Amino acid sequence: MDRRAFLRKPASALTAPAAVPAGPLVPQTDPPGETLSPYANKTLPVLPRTNAGLAAYAGPWGTAQAAHLLRRCLFGPTRAQLAAAASSTLSQVLTTLLTAPATPAPPVNVSATDTSVAIGQTWVTQAFDQNFEGVRRSALRAWWLGQLLQGSTLQGKMWLFWHNHFVVELADINDARYGYHYAELLRGQALGNVKQLCKDVTVAPAMLRYLNGNQSTATAPNENYGRELLELFTVGKGPLIGTGNYTNYTEADVQAAAKVLTGWRDNATTIAGYYTASRHDTTVKQFSGAFQNQAIPNGGDQEYKTLVDMIFGQAETARHLVRKLYRWFVYYVIDATTEQNIIQPLATQLQQNGYNIGPVLRTLLASEHFFDAVNVGCYIKSPLDFSLGLLRQLEVAQPTSANVAQQYAVWDYFNGLTNLQQQYLGDPPNVAGWPAYWQTPQFNELWINAVTLPRRTQVSDALLTSTGVTRSGFQLIVDPVAWAQSLPAATAQDPNLLIQAFVDVLMPFALTTSQLAYLNDTLLPGLPDFEWTDEWNQYLAAPTNTAKKNAVATKLRALLKAMLSQAEYQLS
Question: InterPro entries, alphabetically (predicted)?
């Protein structure tokens, strides 16, 4: 399998009406239109990609294996994280990854527009005010990205997973306090119990408002949430086998679910969902053969829990969830062999352990299937993976909380850049989430097109200039000299060892001999290796000499620019 092929197409082949934006890299308000590469998948392969199953991985454990695990579980593992993981065991690394970090402090006010609280104080418990909504929502997005960037944990990766699964669009709910409550709900259960999370999300004020559950009454049940609960959040449709019958549920089931969910409203004062008995349908709700013809009698404010329990009692719910986890952590193609060897047994485990996610993730991430060569470096990075990974892997300095307005301004800037790349944190395009995670047969190939690929390059190129990018008085810049100087002395002064050190962190698999030779020639155009050693040692002897520092810095920037423009860097 040639994992580089899709991304190696010449730029001329990726033609599209949209042009590369000219001038400085400035985020836009609205995401650009999506243009599909003519080289994207038209059909999915049918032959098994691998026969490897869920048996515990027993192969070699070192930098390469640790890097594969951490690239899938974190937003851009650093060199220090890779070294620490490689010096531990797989079991120890997984235990660390599956340990949830402490709860972060809530987002704060960073704008003089919001007069309800002082700069640096949280607004999440303040009264709603439309005049402040815009700056609060921006602060929420910035805070959310900052948590993903600073922590870079498996919890963070799963936080984004659940945001793409139990979708709420912040712009649609128009209350940043609701958005924070929703984000914290997902974060707190990111590695926990998905059945409980589903119950909590069902009556969360953000979801009640987003899918109109707050308008659902006994005389006018609203079907929006009931439909998405079945179609997207739990059991999934399955093939259409008759009018109003999607195999895993029917239109009558949607209507019955809607009746179960009547009576719930959102309270803008308590920032919670609440139940009003007079608005609830008290009839017996009859479900189809897809749910073993179960009936749910009136249960008042507990009835929604009975509905969720019934849905999670279906084996297909577990399979639907596991398929989404597989596509998030491994690959988007699920052939018949993978369905039998991976999806089915993991779904059984998930259902038997009461829908706790952690044990299932441990089984998958510790398996021979996960570490099979075919699953290494096959996953195209999302915009958040790309952008946050770039910042973390090249150790771009970030503002601290000592200047919270500056810190949030930088995080907000990167939210704008990922929006340019067609992934805006807090606002998936619709209730189904970002198409790259569900649109068959292209799936994550959708992240790369004639609009987004140049914009990715713009992000890395801007950070690699000698001046970087300045936002709110803070300079965002890659310091390749400091990065190289942090390496062992013998590595930093040898051009080939130096290049390999960058490859180990930035690339998902080994480069070919010709690729390494190209990078060597980029670092030292037409020059022998000893020229780098000589220049590097001259700089070390006089580190305050601007000319000597610029000589090595210019070469390192050229090297990194070439590496970050390679197809391999777009892969994980």
Answer: DUF1800
